Amino acid sequence: MNIPTTKPVPLTYDVVVDRIRTGALRAKGVRLAPEDITESTAFWPDGDLNETCLYFDSLDFLELVVFLEQEYGWVVPETAIDIQDCRTVGGLATVVIDHVPQES
Amino acid sequence: METDLRTDQLILAARELIELGSDAWAGPHTDAFIEQVGRQHGAGALYQKATAKAIAQRDLEVSSSEQAAAGVYRNFIWTHFVCKLLMTASPAMSVQYALTRFDIRELETALGAVGSSILSCFHYTGYPLMALRLAVSPMAPLISKARVDFLEKSPERISDHVVYLSDRSAPVRITRALKQGTSVWVLLDVVLPEVREIRTEFLGRDMNVGAGIETIARLSGRPCLPLFWEVTNARTTLRTGAPISQADPSDDTLIQEFVKTQAAFIAAHPTQWLEWYSVLDEAPSVRAQVKQANEELWTRLSQALRHRSQI
User: Fold this and answer.
1) What angle do CA B280, B146, B19 make, to 5 degrees?
2) Are B128 and B79 in contact (CB under 8 A)?
3) Tens of pLDDT along B75-93?
4) FRET label pair with B310: which of A11, B81, B134, B258, CA 20 to 30 Å apart?
5) ipTM score of complex
6) Bridge partner residues of B198 (DSSP)
7) Alpha carbon distance B282, B289 (integer Å)
């Protein structure tokens, strides 16, 4: 019998952004379509009215962090959750890659 | 501008109070100090007027809402100025006072049976001291909103447990701590700007409180334990209500159930709750003025701490 082997899935930036997008869409009140959530989408605004923003509060962000933890085992240290570093989807993706071991 | 330390009666009174050591928490000198501070608080009249209005709106068995408001104001001054002054001037003496005067056995028993919990209450008389008492106990919960400036200067074991709710990471830290067996102390009656609120029924009228613990209870799977206490000249006993769990993830009654427990206590002990005015529509404006007056008064009082050797 051939036992299928699981090839390691590299934790690439694009994979992380895609999974963050999946988690973000679960939040209540999100009005953006999946394709509108990109690496430059902000979780919370910083005054730029032209910026695409999810308008998350700290509880929405908590739900997202717990989703990433439970679904993918990505535990982002609290000390890495910085209001500037994690302000955008891409920023959070970078924090995840910096702190989570490559998955296999 | 600094006041003349030799002539400012408030600073001199503060120094005298500090020098009383463990006798400074209560007694004739403390009462006189409270009167003096109360007279010089820039928003004292506003605080009492707003408190009396909020009490009058509720159907409570008090002979006079103004009289009750005066009692609240006295407890407010004791909590924000006597406690703050003594905790800052004599941390070790404050810990000793909290250890000997605050009985937390009921909570210890409850946590032994229930496990890590969201320890929730409103801002009651002496809440920074109660937080300190819990911080130095074996249960050592994460502490938010209770003289964190004092607590974070405390020995490492305590300062590591201070959490600022304004930090984006605070809900994550709290949720993880609960899952890992550490309880968390959260005061729900003062809602920070831009924080999600939920409307509840409180003594027959509406009241907005922070919505965070419902999400945190659901994600951590841990219950809310309501707390209450009445500070008296005798020993203060921390009371614990029945744990409130969120059995169904779609259930959104946890906070209302919690508010009910606090309402029942406040109805019986109206002078113990310091944030009566938060139920008023004009609460943000009142809070801003009270906060500013607090800071102005504290700036004066803190000179007694900075220049103790000069007096």
Assistant:
1) 115
2) yes
3) 999 999 999 999 999 988 9
4) B81
5) 0.82
6) B209
7) 11
- With contact defined as beta carbons under 8 Å apart, do A50 and A40 qualify? no
Nearest CB to A58; choose among B168, B176, B219:
B168
Q: Contacts of residue A61 in chain B, CB cutoff 8 Å?
A: 168, 171-172
- pLDDT, one tens digit per residue, over B138-152 is 988 888 866 666 666
SS3 B49: helix
Q: B167 contacts in A (CB within 8 Å)?
A: 83
* Residue the block writes with tokens 């606090």: B262
Identify which of B168, B193, B176, B219 has the alpha carbon closest to the alpha carbon of residue A58. B168
Q: What is the phi/psi pair of residue B206, to 5°? A: -80, 150
Cross-chain residue pair A62–B195, CB shorter than 8 Å: no
Sign, CA dihedral B173-B174-B175-B181, equals positive
Name residue, tokens 């409270």.
B34
Using CA atoms, how far apart are residues B211 and B189, in angstroms rounded to an integer? 10
**What's the pLDDT at A2?**
54
Q: Which residues pair with A82 in a beta bridge?
A: none
Tokens, residue B168: 């984006």
pTM of the predicted protein model = 0.89
For residue B220, the surrounding DSSP H or E stretch is helix B212-220
Closest by Cβ to A62, choosing from B172, B194, B195: B172
Asked if residue B62 has pLDDT above 80, the reply is: yes
Structure tokens of B101? 């005067």
